[in-house]
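Entry for the shared binder. Reason: the reviewer on the internal report wants the predicted structure included alongside the sequence.
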Amino acid sequence: MTTDCLFREDAYLQDCEATVVDLTAEGGIVLDRTVFYATSGGQPGDRGTITLASGEVVPIATAIYSDPAKTRITHIPAEGSAPVAVGDKVRAAIDWRVRYPLMRMHTALHLLSAALPYPVTGGSIGESESRLDFDIPEAGLDKAEIDAKLAQMIATDADVTSRWISDDELAANPGLVKTMAVKPPMGTGRVRLIEIRDLDLQPCGGTHVRKTGEIGAVRVTQIEKKGKQNRRVRLGLV
């Protein structure tokens, strides 16, 4: 059974009613639908709670995909949590104080990849600082110049929207994929695109803000040389 990933259509949805459809051997909880983002693409899985009909609260430490196609999400409860049974009706709720900064940072990284139009070799998303690694042949990067480009993009308050295309459409447009190390999940027949109006378009399964203005002020905190052609650019919320 696949999980209905509600966050893909509405990243601002903080809770939902759901039914437990499976339990893994390790104690993970699989729901028929969820607001929990599962670890992928450099973005960590959500933390939060699952509340049982009895009122007992199960703290969720993270969420992960438990299949290669990324269609089934397993919620990992904290050790010693109350037992859950298949068929239980529950309420799943994310920790919004953690999710929202990740949405701002993830969207900012999309802008960073537009400001620096080089192949992306890796990345990581955090609540206050994130990074992208670029394949750049001995190029000098200027922090102030990148900061100015990002500030200009953010100030446009551009709409951030999502849409779906088929696997075949993506295969016919390989230039949409910026990441060299992580490829968008294919095999289900469709791929999700994130578009930042007039600024960026690329496949992504992550959560983002609705407008670039919500990102707020960001700055490049560090630029590191990680190899002959690899530059790591760290970005922080101000």
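Summary line for the report: The first strand starts at residue 4 and ends at 5.
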